[in-house]
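tool_log.txt
---
The assistant was asked to compare two proteins side by side. It first ran the structure predictor on the initial sequence, then on the second. Raw inputs and outputs are pasted verbatim so the downstream comparison step can read them without reformatting.
(1)
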Amino acid sequence: MRDMLLLAAGLVAITVALIHGVLGETVVFARATISPERLRTLLRLVWQAGTVAWIGCGVLLIAAPWMGSEPARHWTVITVIVVFAFAACANALATRARHFGWVMLAGVVVLAAAGY
């Protein structure tokens, strides 16, 4: 059961990351007027770095049940919980909890903690 919860947490993490990346490109940066162009490019790349990092966290959660080491599983899950908990809190604070993103991010935290 623990392994299934980590698998679910990983899949949700990857889904959240993909939504973050797509909405960033199609909504946020499509409307934003940022100049100079170099700054716009930098902000887009930093935004997508978060997307890639969250996908990596999701992959690690999916792989955690097959890690041969209990300490590796422990630190992988704890690290991902901290990363997504911080992101959920930051999103809720910045949007005054009006954005669905913090709920999705918190869902990853709950699933990963349950599968810990």
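(2)
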Amino acid sequence: MPDTIETTARAALAEVLPQSLPPEAIDPDVELDHLGLTSLNKVLFLTSVCDRTQVGLHHFTEHDLAAMRTLGQVVEALSRHAEVR
């Protein structure tokens, strides 16, 4: 997983979590809903991280988005579509 995508995803996720948690403290294998992320906040997170990494949401189907249940899965999915930096 490229560090730039993971770092960007961690920062975007930390911004929408209901509790204050530093980005580096987020376990990439914990399910997003276990972190207290609502459906709306998941959409805000995914939109933000796609914008920041310049990966269009059009690359993902509804099924792809639903399968992104952890930070690690989001980073992996984005990595498949991001340009190498």
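---
observation on (2): The helical segments are 3-16, 39-53, 62-67, 71-81. The chain has four helices and no strands.
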